[in-house]
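USER:
Class, as today's exercise, take the chain set out below, and explain how the chain folds.
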Amino acid sequence: MRVAEDASPGAVTARRFTTRRARSLFRHQVRNEQLLFWRSREAAVFVFLFPVLLFLLLGTVYSGRYHGHALSEYLVAGLLGYGTANTAFGGLAITLVLRREQGVLKRIRATPLPPALYLAATLASILIVFAIQSVSLIGLGHFVFDAELPTRPFSLLVALAVGAASFAALGIGVASLIRSAEGSSAVVNIIILPMTFLSGGFGPTRDYPQLLQDIAEVLPLKHLIDAITGIYLDHEPVWDQGWALLVVAVWGVIGAVVAKRRFGWEPREG
């Protein structure tokens, strides 16, 4: 009887209405998130503009070639990785901590907007920012520093998508561990900047001490940058980067597990 009821025209119509309503709420929330992001000068500068400005600065300093490629092309690959971590991880973590401590997340739970849909819209908005940032970095590399354009754009897109999803999961996981709004930016930067330095986000790491190179091997950003470098510079397909992307994805799963166990919607300060 339940099967027959579920298959009735009324039940099908209700499900379609629910799906349409969810899509409408999602689009509306993504639009709101975009408006909030671009109206916030601090977020726009730190999350979106800083990697672009850093690329312009480093691009004027680095010159020559490495392993047959211009160093500017290594910078494109490295800063695409850094942009992934800075945007999907850092931007999301700081945003969630600030909103939690300001009571925004608590109020969201009292609205008809489902919490899962709210998080999905927040993540989607961050990924839109990252997509614009990635196009900007590749465009600047090509038109300003004469770096080549990707010859395998689909493979590069897949690698960046895996990286963004994984670092977003890590961002939510770290946000669940940070206790204060004041400490969120410091914690995020203490994680991101050394990790980027060790992983080659600011240039080749060939002259680093062996100990630092060994530490980098366990970091997700190192493997993401390796995957991006293989696709962008060596023109390899994405499936040749399976191991590197698997390591990145495992870190993402770890972040998701921490987030599931520890993420809260209530302020922790005071």
